[in-house]
């Protein structure tokens, strides 16, 4: 099989996985295996067609068994949103916030809106715990 056919197949498989469907990175490793075989043949490694198919199959199977799960978890663990990182945090409040009132606070080097969802005021100098995020507003209750 010519080198360019392997490269086209590899790019098509990568495009399908990355652009059209989410197959949990199975098709990505098929595409990468095809690209590797295409590069080998393109750089002059003389491999018969059956050998190219064997190399493609072995690379695809080995990469799916030993690399795919790590790669998949690495990519998906980086996608933590605000909910995963801010909910449950304790914030020290510098001004008194009455029940139902929203105020601006400084946290993590940024200014946030914080809404007091408790029945009592969050006093200046006390702590509040974030339990939800509504858009860009942190919803918190008194901890002390």
Helix content: 40-55%
What structural class results from the helix and strand content?
Answer: alpha+beta
The whole-angstrom Rg is: 26 Å
Question: Number of DSSP strands?
Answer: 5
Q: What ranges have pLDDT less than 50 throughout 5 or more consecutive residues?
A: none
Overall geometry comes to rod-shaped
- On the 0 to 100 scale, the average pLDDT is 86
Summarize the helix and strand pattern as letters. Answer: HHHHHEEEEE
- Lateral strand order in the biggest sheet: 1-4-5-3-2
Total number of helices? 5
Distance between the termini: 71 Å
Strand content: 15-25%
Characterize the main sheet: 5 strands, mixed
Number of domains: 2
What does the model show?
The chain is of the alpha+beta class and 144 residues long. The protein has 2 domains: 75 residues, no CATH class; 61 residues, OB fold (Dihydrolipoamide Acetyltransferase, E2P). It is built from 5 helices and 5 strands, in the order H-H-H-H-H-E-E-E-E-E. The relative contact order is 0.11.
